[in-house]
Amino acid sequence: PEQSQAIVIYTGWERHALVGSDVRLSCSFFSWRWTSEDVSFSWTYRPDGSRDTISIFHYTRGVPYLDNKGPFKDRLEFVGNPGRRDGSILIKNLDLSDNGTFTCDAKNPPDIVGRPSSVRLLVFENPIQAGVITGAIIGVVLGLLVLIVVIYYLMRFLVARRVFSLSVKHGKKKKEGSQQRQGPVPPADPSKVKAATSEKKKQESRKDKK
Amino acid sequence: MLLLLLGIIFLHLAALVLLFVSTIVSSNIYYTLTHHHYRSVTDSPPPLFFFSLAEWIQAVQAVMILSIIFSCLSLFLFFCQLFTLQKGGRFFLTGTFQILASLFVMSGAIIYTVMSPEWVLGTYSFGYSYILAWVAFPLALISGLIYVILRKRE
């Protein structure tokens, strides 16, 4: 039997991805010998916080075997090129439960002594852009404030206009009638209009009483 | 009389300054909070999009900024009403804005208190900006109430 030498396996250190996206976990190895026909790749998965490791992928003798029962059923794809020492897999449609450690073990007979390499997968929720919610809340509150101010002044303006038209009617009637009258109220100062409004109301109520 | 005026303005400014410091410093704490959480899970620096993950942090930011805006508006309105109000009138508008500012600070501090234990691993003492917010809240509230009660004299 040939003497086996060490094989060095490389994977990434960590992979980040968003929920729903695909991620490629790459695995390669270094070995002094030519790539054997019996080269094999194995991927195992250990979820975050769990002690159990399950096998999810195995490539041997030219045939890739994908997980068809476990958590990655129908989501795994072999995208590697074993002839080029590439044992990469593709995981599709990631979920938060896919957080964990993926370990790749490659063997290039007779070089089988090697330490499997692990890559950590971190899956994140799709984040809301920083500040969108902040801006929305501030915008809504300030918008409401501006709206209230606008409505307030609009009401005052409408009341002033009504007072103006009323006083014009009054003025015309009084021209025909007696002499004591007030000229049409100039549509200027709201505070003066307020005073004029209350005065007009008082006058009207006095007239009604009479 | 002048003493009273200065006292009221000083109280208002004290609350405003506390709000400013609390808001500005707490933006650093948001970073630390998420960074701290992430660091205890892995050893690498968190990816950039991680910081915007928490919606409640953004809500706290918004509410703190709103409290500053309303407190500044209240101060501005105070000076406006000081010169335009009739004798014996009350500073209702000024007081309303200041009280609203204090309510905003209160809601910000409450949201922070309720939500942060979910995010913080292990022991993590609340930073001083959190304490400043809880001090600014009664100050602003009292200041607003004084405005509502106060009557203008000549």
From TrEMBL, chain A:
Residues 1-120 form the Ig-like domain. GO terms for cellular component: plasma membrane. Pfam families: V-set. The keyword Transmembrane applies. Residues 170-210 are annotated as: Disordered. It is a single-pass type I membrane protein. The chain crosses the membrane at residues 130-155. GO terms for biological process: myelination. It is found in: Membrane. SUPFAM superfamilies: Immunoglobulin. Residues 197-210 have a biased composition (Basic and acidic residues). InterPro entries: Ig-like_dom, Ig-like_dom_sf, Ig-like_fold, Ig_sub, Ig_V-set, Myelin_P0-rel. Keywords: Disulfide bond, Glycoprotein, Immunoglobulin domain, Membrane, Signal, Transmembrane, Transmembrane helix. Belongs to the myelin P0 protein family. This is Myelin protein zero. It comes from Amphilophus citrinellus.
UniProtKB/TrEMBL annotation, chain B:
It is a multi-pass membrane protein. It comes from the Eukaryota. It is found in: Membrane. It holds the Pfam family PMP22_Claudin. The chain crosses the membrane at residues 56-79, 91-115, 127-150. GO terms for cellular component: plasma membrane. Keywords: Membrane, Transmembrane, Transmembrane helix. Belongs to the PMP-22/EMP/MP20 family. This is Peripheral myelin protein 22. It comes from Amphilophus citrinellus.
